[in-house]
Amino acid sequence: MTQSLLILDPVAPPRHARARAQAITSLAGKRVGFIDNSKPNFHHLVDDLAELLVQRHGAAAVIKRRKRAASIPAPADIMREMGQCDLIISGSGD
């Protein structure tokens, strides 16, 4: 009697490499997005950093949005809005 053995390969096929975004050399005229993940104190940092980016580095606009919880992804409407930014900072604090 011959037995067969099924071998499964758990390795996913390679993903197509994406081109890297160009580095931002200046914040002048750029839109900066912040995603607050609802952890304590991050909003304090965001407020100060946003002011600094506008006043000292010429950022044209700052968009700040807060997720409902750190453990869940940002909702689609926040992600669409962040897609209009030149730079996004997603952070945590404690």
Walk me through the structure.
This protein is of the alpha/beta class. The protein is built from two helices and three strands. It starts with 30 loop residues before the first strand and ends with a strand. The chain has a domain at 39-91. The protein has helices at residues 42-57, 76-82; strands spanning 31-36, 61-66, 87-91.
Features:
single chain; 94 residues; alpha/beta; three-stranded parallel beta sheet; 2 helices; 24% helix; elongated
The portion of residues assigned to helices is 10-25%
- Outline the low-pLDDT stretches: none
Shape: elongated
Q: What is the overall number of helices?
A: 2
Assembly type? single chain
Q: Would you tell me the overall average pLDDT?
A: 91
Element string (H = helix, E = strand): EHEHE
Structural class: alpha/beta
Q: What portion of residues belong to β-strands?
A: 15-25%
Described by strand count, sense and barrel closure, the largest sheet is:
3 strands, parallel
Strand arrangement in the largest pleated sheet: 2-1-3
Q: Radius of gyration, Cα only, in angstroms?
A: 21 Å
Distance between the termini: 64 Å
Number of strands: 3
